[in-house]
Input
Amino acid sequence: MAKAEQKVDLGAMRHSCAHVLAQAVLEMFPEAKLGVGPAIEDGFYYDFELPRTLIPEDLPLLEKKMKQIVKQAQTFVGREEPAKKAVSFLKGAGQPFKAELAQQFSEEGQKITFYENVMPGTGKPMFVDLCRGGHLEHTGKIGPFKLLKIAGAYWKGDENRPMLQRIYGTCWPAQKELDDYIFQLEEAKKRDHKVLGKQLRLFTFSPLVGGGYPLFLPKGAQVLETLSEYIMGVKKRNGYSFVRIPHVAKEELYIRSGHLGKYDAMMPVMETSEGDRYVMKPMNCPHHFEIYNSEMHSYKDLPLRYAENTAVYRNEKSGEVHGLFRVRSITQDDTHHFVRHDQIESEIEMILGITQELYEKFGFSNYKAQISVRDPEKPEKYFGDDKLWKRAEEKLVKCAEKWGHEYFIEQGEAAFYGPKIDVMVKDALGREWQLTTVQLDFVQPENFDMKYVGEDGKEHRPAVVHVAIFGSFERFLGILIEHYAGAFPAWLAPVQARIIPVGADFFGYAEKIYGQLRESGVRVEWDDSRDSLGKKIRNAEREKIPYMLVVGDKEQKEKNVTVRNYADKKQETMEIDRVMPNLFRHL
Output
């Protein structure tokens, strides 16, 4: 009878590998100061204060030392120590960061535990670390691993504390799994939206403008315009009304909403010469609440859906700003649904239906919902009474269940005024991204004293559903660039077709086709350079233009074009009148 396959504790394996890394670093740099070394999704990292800056060439040297440690099958042995003794030991060993952690654990009432890597046979401890545990039996059970990169990280994430050097690695039960993961990383590098954004001339950054404030070039702006028109069309078909608001407001607005004091990414307050204090808006909801309150509403008016594609401004830390994925100027496809309480479930069902339509449009087929609820241990983080919160959380779970896709509950991830559904999607490489947010809010209607007149002639309080389907246009564009590897589908591409005349004799014919397509709404260019045909095709390929329309002597005589498809590299000759219905049916 075949022996049952033993399930690998991947977290324990990766945490064990992080200890092996720390041991190898101490062999290379005996004076190294150790930070933390947790297992993370797809791998592990460890932070160090070192006598010199690491270089990429150090990683293979450390890997070699790690392989020796793994081969020795050193045993992981844990022990508990009194807090005072532990802190004294770590200070004496020249490990100030570990000593600080031990002191912190002691003050929090936690046990202080150490784990040693012990050489089998001799019982000699080779490495000891302050650690809560979660290891394999010995280093020999660690699977194939690879060190990936070096980065900087502030101690405890505090920019006022020392900057440490972080080494990232990955570890897997089998070599094929490691090879597949490394292949995926290499594919991700090829799809890096920052690299492709520059290559395709979509966006740029300027140090004079500031980090986190992207500047979109004509082609990038065109993609954003197409995205905006698409989502506006979807929303208008579903009964949304579009509004327009300013980018600033008095600080009193955010005192009323509770953001001042609860939300730590607000831009600094600006004071006018008259003494009024204004804030750049970090979100749009308080403005939309004031629009709602500008007139009285009947129960017949609801649901009322205000939509807007507009920028908000957030004071993100410089170390967290990253390409289009984390910016300080964020354009949201924001909507606020003002609903009666009996309409909540049907409204969220409608929103999730729109979300599914959108994902299918962009080729996302694998997605699930995260329901973010309160941290029951930290009630002071949230506004509103327990009864309202419980009701809101139950309604979101019910809606997710009816939607029929996988969902899970995440404690402590709710906003301060309400629980939410975050929809996670997987891209072409299987990487997961959080996109759509659906947040149910019973608190802000109280803060802003929102009302409507019910069928009974009395005043009632609506609920608000906050929704962003793309989330952020900037981040969504970054995700799409990597999802498509820069090769946008024809309906979304900034340039949908390029006409390529074989030579100057066919410029007139090329220009005529250009005019016809442009008049029909196609985003088209024609190449009037004196380059060879091969170079013109290579240029269009590099720019990932969906269709190349090649014209030469035969095409001019027969009044047709030879269409080269970027996606499948196939060529087809077709009459000019067939180009529009066959290639651009979406227009």
About this structure: Residues 497-583 form a domain with the Rossmann fold fold (CATH 3.40.50.800). Confidence is low (pLDDT under 50) at residues 1-5. The first helix runs from residue 10 to 28. The chain is about 35% helix and 25% strand.
